[in-house]
């Protein structure tokens, strides 16, 4: 594990996938979504950069061949991995419908809250690590919802999402360490997951931390306390399930589309999230 006498590390840039995004519909929509990711990042980055803190990774590609989708944030505490998804929604009370299969904000129907995106992201990351001989413990992923306006609050008490906990930004801010963990990260897990980050040029370990060791190969564990280099890394090209995911069934682009159409856009901004 990492060194408890040094800070953790932040790898990647929050909201990076929303910079210049063409799928968001407008620059305003992209800015709204990016704001949610940045607010979540401020909380977990602060946790990471305390002495003995975990490692935070932002904007990771989901390792499913043939799809373009991302995970907003991921926290590694010891051997525990927590996936976080930031959203910006209109103020209001969100709840599941009585008959299931959907959700509403007040009387307005909001369908995609029932998508299984978080389930698929967790399974894909777990298989990715196992294929590299790395075993990790996975916490239940967390969906963090921020209000799009200061004129109201978001309530998610009556809302459930498949495979994830739902917390408002206010709730998450009170229990960041309890939710994500606050231990130094397993360097093998960090080294493998850093390869999925869209831009590691923004990694910023503290100067008081020891110099990072050279990045190990996929199947070689680094020395205890080492961290992945902060220079940009080339993301490996997607490979068939037989090599990346062992004998596990392969998710396809069609499967992912059924789980959450336009996932990269819906990660942070939703049709009903305008101010």
Keywords, separated by commas or semicolons:
11 strands, 8 helices, 25% helix, disordered C terminus, seven-stranded mixed sheet, alpha/beta, 275 residues, four-stranded mixed sheet, globular
State the separation between the terminal residues, measured CA to CA.
Answer: 43 Å
Instruction: List how many beta strands DSSP finds.
Output: 11
Q: What proportion of the residues is helical, as a percent range? A: 25-40%
User: Would you list the SSEs in sequence order as H and E?
Assistant: EHEEEEEEHEEEEHHHHHH
Sketch the major β-sheet: 7 strands, mixed
Strand content: 15-25%
Which regions are unreliable across 5 or more consecutive residues at pLDDT < 50? 20-24, 206-275
Which descriptor suits the 3D outline? globular
Based on CA atoms alone, the radius of gyration comes out at 18 Å
Structural class: alpha/beta
Number of DSSP helical runs = 8
Number of domains: 1
Average pLDDT confidence is 75
Domain NERD: 33-119
Biased composition (Low complexity): 201-243
Protein name: NERD domain-containing protein
Region (Disordered): 201-275
Structure description:
Residues 201-243 have a biased composition (Low complexity). It contains eight helices and eleven strands. 25% of the residues lie in helices and 20% in strands. It has helices spanning 27-48, 117-130, 169-174, 176-180, 187-194, 241-244, 253-259, 263-266, and strands at 9-11, 55-61, 70-77, 80-89, 92-96, 103-105, 108-110, 137-138, 142-147, 154-158, 165-168. It starts with 8 loop residues before the first strand and ends in a 9-residue tail after the last helix. It is an alpha/beta fold and 275 residues long.
């Amino acid at each position: 594990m990492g060194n408890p006498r040094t800070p953790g590390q932040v790898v990647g840039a929050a909201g990076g996938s929303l910079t210049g995004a063409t799928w968001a519909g407008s620059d305003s929509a992209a800015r709204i979504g990016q704001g949610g990711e940045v607010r979540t990042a401020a909380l977990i980055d602060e946790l990471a950069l305390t002495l003995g803190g975990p490692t935070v990774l932002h904007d990771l590609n989901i390792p499913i061949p043939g799809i373009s989708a991302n995970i907003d944030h991921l926290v590694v505490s010891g051997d525990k991995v927590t996936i976080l998804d930031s959203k910006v929604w209109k103020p209001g009370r969100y709840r599941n419908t009585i008959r299931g299969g959907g959700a509403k904000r007040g009387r307005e129907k909001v369908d995609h809250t029932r998508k299984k995106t978080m389930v698929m992201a967790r399974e894909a990351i777990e298989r990715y690590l196992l294929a590299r001989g790395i075993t990790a413990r996975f916490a239940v992923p967390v969906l963090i919802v921020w209000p799009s306006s200061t004129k109201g609050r978001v309530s998610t008490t009556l809302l459930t999402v498949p495979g994830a906990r739902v917390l408002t930004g206010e709730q998450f801010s009170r229990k960041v360490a309890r939710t994500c963990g606050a231990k130094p990260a397993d360097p093998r897990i960090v080294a493998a997951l850093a390869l999925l980050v869209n831009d590691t040029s923004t990694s910023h370990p503290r100067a008081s931390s020891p110099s990072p060791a050279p990045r190990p190969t996929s199947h070689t564990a680094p020395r205890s306390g080492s961290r992945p280099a902060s220079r940009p890394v080339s993301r490996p090209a997607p490979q068939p399930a037989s090599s990346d995911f062992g004998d596990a069934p392969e998710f396809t682009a069609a499967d992912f589309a059924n789980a959450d159409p336009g996932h990269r856009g819906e990660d942070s901004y939703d049709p009903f999230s305008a101010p």
